[in-house]
Amino acid sequence: MFAQEKVAAISIRDARKTYEGGTEALRGVSLEILPGQVTALLGRSGCGKTTLLNLCGAMDFPTSGEVVVAGRVTSSLGDAELTALRRREIGFVFQFFQLLPSLTALENVELPLLLAGAKNTEATAMERLRWVELEGKARSLPTQLSGGQMQRVAIARALVHDPKILVADEPTGNLDTVSGDAVLKLIRRAASELGAAVVMATHSVEAAAIAETKVRMRDGRIESIER
Ligand SMILES: Nc1ncnc2c1ncn2[C@@H]1O[C@H](COP(=O)(O)OP(=O)(O)OP(=O)(O)O)[C@@H](O)[C@H]1O
Ligand SMILES: [Mg+2]
Question: Which residues, at least 6 apart from 184, have a Cβ–Cβ distance to it below 8 Å?
């Protein structure tokens, strides 16, 4: 038997990103993001973590080089294909949760399924809320939840469509240690239990500790990769 190599969920090949105005946010980054693993992007403010995450989530494109997400070269896709790629294959979690304030927890989780034209949306959303142990808050509005609970709802929303990829930008950046730990456990389980390729930017030592792969960035480049 040959050892089977895992196929990367995201392959980044010599990606450079220069913003309008001339900032070189990425200066030649190559990286493979593997399924079933958490990959942490570490490094000082301004080193390019969010820029790299935006490329991983097909929210932005390299100025040169190539980013392959779930087998598709992102810069070759049209708008409709990009929307489909994001809706089917990618979930997003942000520092400030970004829940819709007028929707209940359940409706927030259900929304991506409705947008994708899925069936059984409410039952599926409820199942994911149960997975983050918040089925009891299904009818609550975001303002009625704690920060940690809001982030758990955001994680349920990000994972409701079983994406191959979970992109998380400072997911514990706005949380106390106890809430942050609960969120990190869920992110860990997204990789271990659901098989997602998780890529997470973080300044937190606790968050970095759940990652199999730690990528240290500096001035738009990868300084080291620790597996
Ligand atoms: N939309 C933009 N337009 C122009 N410059 C930008 C834009 N977004 C980021 N930059 C610049 O690109 C560089 C990298 O920024 P980025 O947000 O990727 O850093 P980061 O590592 O995520 O930082 P932080 O830890 O503070 O979140 C910085 O110099 C930043 O000022
Ligand atoms: Mg950032």
Answer: 171, 172, 206, 207, 210
| pLDDT per residue rounded down to tens, the chain (227 residues) | 455 567 999 999 999 999 999 999 999 999 999 999 999 999 999 999 999 999 999 999 999 999 999 999 999 999 999 999 999 999 999 999 999 999 999 999 999 999 989 999 999 999 999 999 999 999 999 999 999 999 999 999 999 999 999 999 999 999 999 999 999 999 999 999 999 999 999 999 999 999 999 999 999 999 999 99
Q: Is the dihedral of CA 152, 97, 104, 157 positive or negative?
A: negative
Q: What angle do CA 75, 81, 87 make, to 5 degrees?
A: 110
Q: Is the CB of 144 under 6 A from ligand 1?
A: no
Q: Which residues, chain by chain, have CB under 5 Å from ion ligand 2?
A: 49-50
Is residue 202 in some structural domain? yes
Number of domains making up the chain: 1
How much distance in Å is there from the Cα of 214 to the middle of ligand 1? 20
pTM here? 0.95
Q: Domain holding 143: CATH number?
A: 3.40.50.300
Q: Which of 45, 61, 96, 217 to mutate to test the pocket of ligand 1 (most atoms within 8 A of CB)?
A: 45
In a domain, 106, yes or no: yes
Ligand with an atom nearest the CA of residue 25: 1
Range of the domain at 45: 10-220
